[in-house]
């Protein structure tokens, strides 16, 4: 048995021993577990180091958290961890309420992706699991996966009863998977590896399949990309950005089964440009282009011009926090087919963002991030906690705030969307941030953001009338499972990069 697969099996076995209580059970007497949670998650606050403009609202431990996503047409958050897929009611953003749990041991599903589909029976909502090495759920035990390379569709239309709906094998890495159009998710792109990625056809949601890039050749053929390896992000203009080993490339995806390459980050994105050292020491991790529909070719870099690409660069094995992986801005000069038309603007490592104690001998790279309209970005920095970056001037990034715990591995940080009276996203963001943490589970923060006059308390848009602040918490995270997760992360990423 290969070492990586053996390690994956051990994590799966350990995950299977983790008791997952249903939401109703969380309302019982949990005096003992809560004491253990406090010791692990530092709920007393003594272990939290935060800037004055950030307030910790609550800790929601128990899940070994990896990633999460919000639905567009309902105030629902779906999170993924080593032990489960969980569905949360976020109608009161400051106090997320667990509504449904699917016990599911998986690794890594690093980017939980939400999708929706309008049907004659209403809106169908689902989440996508990208199986990197292993996945098994008692909901679908006959289809346990050891080896990875699979897309799993989890139906969350009934938030209280998430369940595995369907699966599809892929010919390339499904480390992450992403809907081309979340509002009408009929096609999904995979992270890929080497110089290829997969496209999945989800038009028949119960029977997804990989699309053959070259039907005239034997077997299912994947698609080519110069930057395969990690994540697809699709902007409001319908352009997909593929980040990975060799930087970022931008694609026109009007016809999702025939994507057309537009441009790339060139040598700087490959980490080989001596004028821009340190812009990619491992991979470009993920991306976002604000106001993409407003793009003005050749204009000065500005969010208003839709020509700034935000990325994180991950270098997970580098434990020197002065170079472990940066948050970055890039100038998209043209989208007319000109080569290497995406050029560096500015970047910040964890050590550039404050004088707080830096992690030693631990992960401190930038990871998932989320942009708030106005220019404040929430970034997960693993052991460096949740960092808030002021990107209002994309050429001069600086710290806006931070929240760092003594024992923590923040993988994902997200601004909670504003939902209207019908439960649909408005495009605005609250001042509430969720941090998904491998050690702590789900932390909730309020941030004093520019212009709202509220301060570091939940804004009115985050707290509807008549909600209950006292939310249930459950379980405790075994530290052995956290350690196994980190070991498996390193092993898998070495495998994907090494020939």
From TrEMBL:
It comes from the Bacteria. The keyword Signal applies. The keyword Signal applies. Keywords: Signal. InterPro entries: WD40_repeat_dom_sf (IPR036322). Residues 250-266 have a biased composition (Polar residues). Residues 25-44, 250-275 are annotated as: Disordered. Residues 1-21 form the signal peptide. This is WD40 repeat domain-containing protein. It comes from Nocardioides koreensis. The lineage of its organism: Bacteria, Bacillati, Actinomycetota, Actinomycetes, Propionibacteriales.
């Amino acid at each position: 048995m290969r070492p990586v697969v053996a390690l994956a099996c051990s994590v799966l076995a350990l995950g299977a021993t983790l008791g997952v209580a249903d939401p109703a059970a969380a309302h019982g007497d949990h005096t003992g577990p809560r004491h253990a949670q406090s010791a692990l998650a530092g709920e007393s606050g003594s272990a939290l180091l935060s800037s004055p403009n950030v307030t910790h609202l609550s800790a929601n431990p128990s899940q070994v958290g990896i990633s999460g996503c919000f639905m567009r047409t309902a105030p629902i958050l779906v999170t993924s961890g080593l032990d489960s897929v969980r569905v949360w009611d976020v109608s009161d953003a400051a106090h997320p309420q667990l509504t449904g749990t699917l016990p599911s041991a998986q690794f890594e599903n690093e980017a939980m992706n939400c999708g929706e589909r309008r049907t004659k029976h209403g809106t169908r909502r689902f989440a996508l699991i990208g199986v990197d090495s292993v996945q098994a759920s008692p909901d679908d035990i006959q289809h346990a996966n050891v080896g990875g390379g699979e897309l799993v569709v989890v139906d969350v239309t009934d938030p209280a009863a998430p369940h595995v709906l369907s699966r599809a094998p892929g010919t390339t890495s499904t480390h992450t998977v992403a809907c081309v159009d979340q509002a009408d998710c009929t096609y999904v792109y995979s992270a890929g590896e080497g110089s290829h990625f997969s496209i999945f056809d989800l038009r028949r949601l119960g029977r997804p399949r990989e699309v053959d890039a070259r039907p005239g050749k034997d077997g299912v053929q994947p698609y080519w990309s110069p930057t395969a390896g990690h994540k697809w992000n699709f902007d409001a203009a319908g352009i997909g950005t593929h980040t990975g080993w060799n930087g970022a490339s931008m694609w026109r995806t009007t016809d999702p089964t025939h994507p057309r390459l537009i441009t790339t980050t060139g040598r700087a994105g490959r980490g080989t440009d001596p004028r821009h050292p340190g812009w990619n020491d491992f991979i470009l991790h993920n991306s976002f282009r604000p106001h993409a529909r407003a793009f003005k070719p050749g204009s000065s870099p500005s969010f208003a011009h839709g020509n700034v690409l935000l990325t994180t660069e991950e270098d997970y094995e580098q434990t020197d926090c002065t170079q472990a992986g940066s948050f970055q801005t890039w100038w998209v000069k043209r989208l007319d087919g000109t080569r290497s038309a995406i050029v560096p603007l500015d970047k910040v490592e964890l050590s550039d963002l404050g004088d707080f104690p830096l992690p030693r001998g631990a992960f401190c790279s930038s990871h998932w991030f989320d942009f708030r309209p106005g220019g404040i970005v929430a970034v997960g920095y693993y052991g460096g906690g949740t960092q808030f970056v002021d990107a209002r001037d994309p050429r001069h990034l600086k710290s806006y705030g931070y929240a760092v715990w003594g024992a923590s591995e923040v993988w994902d940080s997200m601004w909670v969307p504003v939902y209207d009276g019908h439960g649909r996203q408005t495009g605005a963001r609250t001042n509430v941030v969720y941090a998904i943490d491998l050690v702590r589970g789900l932390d909730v923060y309020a941030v004093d953001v520019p212009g709202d006059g509220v301060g570091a308390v939940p804004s009115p848009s985050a707290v509807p009338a008549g909600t209950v602040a006292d939310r249930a918490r459950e379980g405790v995270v075994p530290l052995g499972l956290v350690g196994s997760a980190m070991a498996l992360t390193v092993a898998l990423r070495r495998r994907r990069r090494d020939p």
